Amino acid sequence: MINEINLENSKLLIVDDSQENIKLLGSYFSKKYKIAIAYDGQQAIEIAKDFQPDITLMDINMPNMNGIEATEKILSNDDIKKHPIIFTTALDDIETTVNGFEAGGVDYVIKPFELKNLEKRLENHLQISKMIDLLKQKNNELDELNRTKDKFFSIIAHDLKSPFAGLMNITDLFIEEFDRIPTDQIRKSLIDMGKSLKGVYKLMENLLDWARLQKGKFDFNPASLNIKEVIEDIIFILSNSAKKKKITVSFNYDGELIGFTDYHVFHTIFRNLLTNAIKFTYENGTIKVFIEDLGSDLKISIKDDGMGIKDEIKEKLFKIDTHNTSLGTNKEKGTGLGLILVKEFVELQNGTISFESEIGKGTTFSFTVPKE
């Protein structure tokens, strides 16, 4: 892990009321670090907010606000990232040292400076600080991986188990009671089986795409793509689902729309979003698809007048560690994975995704696609 730590371009804040010390330290360390300077404690706090140092050399004895008080304020300020502060002082007494450590300082050096010694202390504390940051980052990544794994298993356990259990029950019934089951009931059961199998197939498609993304093995091949043509194809593919609920899907755009993305990626994004819109739109409702040219990007929006999204779900909508499946207006079931995959695919093509929603009035999902 130590090999991952790079001290180049680290930021050093030097705080001292002596022009001579500022000149000495600035000249010596400017060859190695990005430097900012402050001449008193209050100025140090203001500069630290903008500069966001990786480490600070703080003089203890300064007018107006001493270094110990400035350190306490810097380390308690949420607008300044936490970083090691080393005190510089001409005083060599235990009480000052203890006060400095209690304020949050990590070390102290006595003036006049022995620059090589000070340089090594700075390096050591920077390495420790950056190693702690790296460990936090790795822990966050591990937490995210665990949430991803838990989500994956919950989908397999719940969303795959339930439809398969239903299919097995129907097939067992057919085998045992086939001669006594009316034809109409067989037909209805086969229609239900078909719906269930289509849902399982869609889930498997999303699961496989999502798993390949997590492993970094997804084959992403962006190229010039006729966006308008793909949108029209998907609207046609999903037209039966819309007709069953008497939903009107409108899309009118004159001229061609060329984006720069992968066909499968764009197809999956738009198909999932339009499927969701149909799912959550009431019978006789309307879904509108419209495009905005943003210059370097195209913005595609799918607006429905359906049930809307509850406030408590909005913040969790794209999170992998929460199961946010909701029944549609006709009790349609979902997997809870579609929008997560959509977000990752949108970001894969260097786009952004957003939504606006109001209960009882509908939802608009928008995402961007880079133009050629």
The gist of it:
The protein is an alpha/beta fold.
Produce the secondary structure layout:
Blueprint: E1 11-15, H1 19-29, E2 34-38, H2 41-51, E3 55-59, H3 67-75, E4 85-89, H4 94-103, E5 107-110, H5 115-177, H6 183-214, E6 223-226, H7 227-237, H8 239-244, E7 248-251, E8 258-261, H9 263-279, E9 286-293, E10 297-304, H10 311-314, H11 338-348, E11 353-358, E12 362-370
Parallel strand pairs: 1-2, 1-3, 3-4, 4-5, 7-9
Antiparallel strand pairs: 6-8, 9-10, 10-12, 11-12
Helix pairs in contact: 2-3, 5-6, 7-9, 9-11
Strand composition percent: 15-25%
Tally of extended strands? Answer: 12
Percent range of helical residues: 40-55%
Structural class comes to alpha/beta
**Shape type:** elongated
Instruction: Estimate the mean pLDDT confidence.
Output: 82
Strand order of the largest sheet: 2-1-3-4-5
Low-confidence stretches: none
Give a quick set of tags describing it.
372 residues, alpha/beta, five-stranded mixed sheet, single chain
Description:
The chain is of the alpha/beta class and 372 residues long. The chain is built from eleven helices and twelve strands. The strands form three sheets. Strands 2-1-3-4-5 form a five-stranded parallel sheet, with helices on both faces. A five-stranded mixed sheet has the order 7-9-10-12-11. Helix 2 packs parallel to helix 3.
